[in-house]
Amino acid sequence: MIYAKITGWGKAVPPAAISNDEISTIVDTNDEWIATRTGIRSRRVSHVSTAELATIASKHALACAGIEGKEVDLVLLATCTPSTMVANTASLVQKNIGATGAAACDTNAACSGFLYALQNATAQIQAGMIKRAVVVAAERMTWYVNWAKRDSAVLFGDGAGAVVLEASSEPSGLMGTKTGCDTEDRDILHITNYGSDIDKYKPVGPSELLFEGREIFKRAVTGMSIACDDVMQKAQLELDDIDVLIPHQANLRIIQAIQKKLDISDDKVMVNIDQYGNTSAATIAIALCEAVEQGLIKPNANIMSAAFGAGLTWAASYIRWGDRTTPINTSDYTFPAYEKSGLELVKDAALACKKTD
Which residues belong to any copy of the Beta-ketoacyl-[acyl-carrier-protein] synthase III N-terminal domain (predicted)? Predict the structure, then answer.
């Protein structure tokens, strides 16, 4: 049997950050209000495009795997904040990493996007259609934020994470997955003022990230728990078999609720929402990279991951890690120099949002 082994991993975390105290200078909130409700202490703001975020993460993943872009057959980008819709953003990433001739495609499943894309690329490798893929999740969520709205302004951040998949006879990579979409209450989480449904001849204000927090919390915990149970049952995994839980980083309370339902101890749960906020599709990809860097993921580890996003999409995945947790090579490709702080980066957008609120 052919497996899609993860041989490389890399991330792109923008250097500019906005702390809770700083964000309280542009919207009516404070550190205690944000931290107690979400677990977020800070979030990153990108001074480069979504395509460049994806490029940085992908180049690091390729170096980690010890391969070049020209050896890649597929570039699959999970994002709901593409740099361009036409042409797709993945095509620019493909060009930037030198993956000449590789297929390039964007996929949008919001916060579940990375797990959706991982499933897609894995299936193509297992079917023998391709041998190597770069699966990258990149988001510039702060572009959507209405800085006059406290409930959404404090939640989101920017970043990217990527993995390289390679065909292998070793039982590793994505071993089991369950994806789906709960459309009954699709409108409880959505972005307005965007897409071809709007009247392009009428002026529109800042994009609105609209969501019903309590209902999302309930559906997220239920949906991800059921999906995890389904995957574990099919993979014949017991709770004690799980070495690491990497949940979508949307809200610390949701993470803790999933952890409780799966009865997993704190030392097995990857949490970095306090540093980055919700980076949508990129949260699991970034957390996966950091779990390896921090030694949480060890050789041959059993990893469970789960996500829930707009749509309402959901996913759960069982990943078996390979025998390597250190990069083969490293890349010095990074962000271009930029002097502005995170607060300065969003200052103009915040003023514009207040004027139109």
Answer: 106-182
Q: How far apart are CA 135 and CA 23, in angstroms?
A: 32
The domain made up of 175-320 is a member of CATH 3.30.420.240: no
Task: Write down the pTM of the prediction.
Answer: 0.95
- Residues 191-210 have a mean pLDDT of 71
Q: Which of 64, 80, 108, 111 is catalytic?
A: 111
What kind of fold does domain 3-171+332-343 have according to CATH?
Peroxisomal Thiolase; Chain A, domain 1 (3.40.47)
The active-site residue out of 96, 251, 272, 278 is 278
Q: How many whole angstroms from its chain centre is CA 297?
A: 18
Residues paired with 156 in a beta bridge: 278
Does residue 356 surpass a pLDDT of 80?
Answer: no
146 is a catalytic site residue? no
- One-letter amino acid of 125: I
**Start-end of CATH 3.40.47.10 domains in the chain:** 3-171+332-343, 175-320
CB of 104 closer than 8 Å to CB of 75: yes
Of the residues 60, 108, 248, 272, which is catalytic? 248
Q: Is 248 a catalytic residue?
A: yes
